[in-house]
Amino acid sequence: MSNREREIDRQAEMLSNIKLAKHYDDVLEGKAKSNVAKIGDFGLYECHFPLPDQKDYLKNYMFSLKTPTGQEWLDITPIDAVKHEADNYKTRHGIDVSVEAFNSYQRVRNNPDLITFKRLSAEEKKDLLGGII
User: Fold this and answer.
1) Looking at the predicted structure, is the pLDDT value of residue 112 above 90?
2) What is the mean pLDDT of residues 61-68?
3) What CA–CA distance (Å, rounded) separates 42 from 30?
4) Sheet harboring 56-64: ordered strands across?
5) If phi over 0 gives left and psi between -120 and 50 gives alpha, with beta otherwise, what is residue 59?
6) DSSP readout, 32-69?
């Protein structure tokens, strides 16, 4: 794992901790239910971040108990992860989408429903993770 990927992971962990702390406070104050779920109930979701000019999308992944919302994705995904995916897109396709990705990030902040999700099947998870799960 490169230093850049470690930094993105640290940022994502920090954002997740902030979100979890808020949820924990809501549970303590009686504003949310504290339900326990089995690990097997969680799904792996492919997140599609729009690139309208390319008629394509950047994608990354997240685990969730239910289909995530665009706002949940924004809450735990640092903009550096979007930049990293844009760099990967350039490597794969030879097209620099960094400006388009930044502009799209600004749009989805105002309309998180532009981010879409697909729950991966067991076969797709196995292909993606190489049998880890």
Assistant:
1) yes
2) 90
3) 24
4) 56-64, 43-51, 116-119
5) beta
6) S------GGG-EEEEEEEEEGGGTEEEEEEEEESS---
